[in-house]
Amino acid sequence: MKTIKSILLALVATLGLTSCTYNKLVEQEEIVAQKWADVQTQYQRRADLIPNLVNTVKGYAAHESETLEAVVNARTKATQITVDPENLTPEKLAEYQAAQGEVSQALGRLLAITENYPDLKANEQFSELQAQLEGTENRIAESRRIFNEAVQTYNTSVRKFPNNIWAMIFGFEKKTPFAAEAGAEKAPEVQF
Amino acid sequence: MKRTLSFLLTLLMTALSFADTYTVDNLPIPYLQDRTHYVSNPDGLLSQTAVDSLNLWLGEMERTHGVQTVLAVVERIEGGETYDFCMALGRKHGIGSKEQNSGLIILLSTGDRAYTILTGRGLEGTLPDAICKRIENYQMLPALREGDWDTAMLNAVRAITKYVDGDDSLVGSSDFDDSDTGALIGFILCMLLGLGIIGFAIWYDERRKSYCPSCKQYKMKKISSYTTRNKRLGIRTHHDTYRCSHCYFTKELHWDENLNSGNGAAAAGGALGGSFFGRGGGSFGGSFGGGSFGGGGASGRF
Question: Residues B58, B69: contact at Cβ < 8 Å?
Answer without folding.
Answer: yes
